[in-house]
Design brief:
Elements (H helix, E strand, L loop, with lengths): L2 H17 L6 H5 L6 H9 L1 H19 L6 H11 L4 E3 L14 H23 L7 H26 L25 H18 L11 H14 L3 H13 L24 E5 L19 H4 L26 E3 L1 H5 L67 E5 H14 L3 H14 L10 H12 L5 H7 L3 H8 L1 E2 L22 H7 L9
Parallel strand pairs: 1-5
Antiparallel strand pairs: 1-3, 2-4
Amino acid sequence: MNNDIYMKRIFLQLLFGVTLLSLLSCEKFLAEEPVTEVSIDFIYTTPEGLESGVNALYNLMRNYNIPEGEGDALRSSLFFLVGTDLGLNRTWHTPYGPNHTPVAFPARKWTRGYQIIDRANAIITNAPKVDMLDTRRNQIIAQARMVRGELYLDLIRMYDNILLDTIATTPENAFDPKEYTPADPEEVFKLIDADLDFAVQHLAWNVDYGRYGRGVAHHIRGKSALWQQKWEEASTHFDAVILDPTHDLLPREQLAQVFGQNLNHKEALLVYVRDEITGGNDNLAGGGPTWISSVFNSRVYELSGGEMIRSTEYGGESLGWSFPNDYLRSLYDEENDLRFRTYYYPLQLIVNNPESPNFGQPLAPERYDDDYRRYHWSLKKYHDEEKRVGTLNSYKDHLFYRYAETLLLGAEAAWRTGNTTKALGYINQVRNRAGLHGFASFDLESYLEESARELALENERWFLLKRLGILVERVNLYYEMGSNSGNKAIYPMAPHMVRLPIPQSQIDLMGTFPQNDGY
């Protein structure tokens, strides 16, 4: 069997299982006989089937961005949250340095991304053939094109050299020969923009919780324009979100609710929804439990003296794998910036063991130590008040795109067009909400620092620094590895690491696609 046929067969085995609402796990599906023509007909020839296919795309995107459990799936997402100038890794994986061997976790982004694109292609291709109301059809296609456009933007930002394929895999074309070559970036961005423009046109502003709406379509479309240095175009899309009343910053007194238990608020552009009752794993509507709420906080209950115990207040069962670093902390006005005491756990611990005579009092200085596993300045954005003590599992919804980022990107776009007044108006909304005075002037360094303060350890910093051409420089200045304060070190990021390696298994299958330089 030649490589082309083998690769298509792999895709063919996967494609129908993930579409049918992923009722079977991938592992089980691959052990089954191929699905029947009847089930394929249901998905792609009926309005109800197409909507089921779209629902499956939401499940797949949730798993792609914020997966259940641990392992390479979680690594593939955490890398972009913490592997920046703002992060510190204590353990588990080393994104950079002399022993940098990024094989598994970058591979998942590539393979899963193209599997989801293939399913989006199938919906986009077949929906025009189905007898249904045009408005319903366009909403289905718009959501599928949102997914495809979002993923292609993700892939080209991560790998630079990517495939471009808009033809869905079917039993009829699965074994057609094909030559695999890197796509022209202009063609990739042309497709991204066309997909997102269609979504902007056909999605509503007000949509059901957890669904794509026009706001997030404009937001991602603006990001695409920034990557192409089309400043006016970017500004237009961010302005569209900012000027429409659907989305807004939560007021200062509600800052704690931005990442609170109820994410159904105006600042949310897109939320990945989880529910334990309808969940169990990411193939199901409710999704599987994530560990992300346990990654970024210390195991304070391991401090000596027995005065700290596991409690929901400090994140419950914790992993203590990754943290904000000292550079990020230096950017905050710790006395006045409300984000410092809202987006992070308190530095001063309060004795929470009821059996201690010091219960309710500040923990004595001699009880602290310098092992990050037990104590470090810790991120609270993924805190889950409903996570049960004794488990790493969380079913809390995840805020993935939000309005504060729209304001900051809109400020950059306006500044690049020469409209400093607008740029200051946007960035100062973010500062004022945090309880700070606004900037009097706009410059790139102030913008980067304010973006760090507001969006730290969310899914944007790595991409922002890469787009500005300063990722390697900034990571080598500030990113840290270490398990206590005595062994922190910079693990150097080499210039070629601004793009991830193409999975070698996929290169072997494709036969004609080159590996990125340096790997």
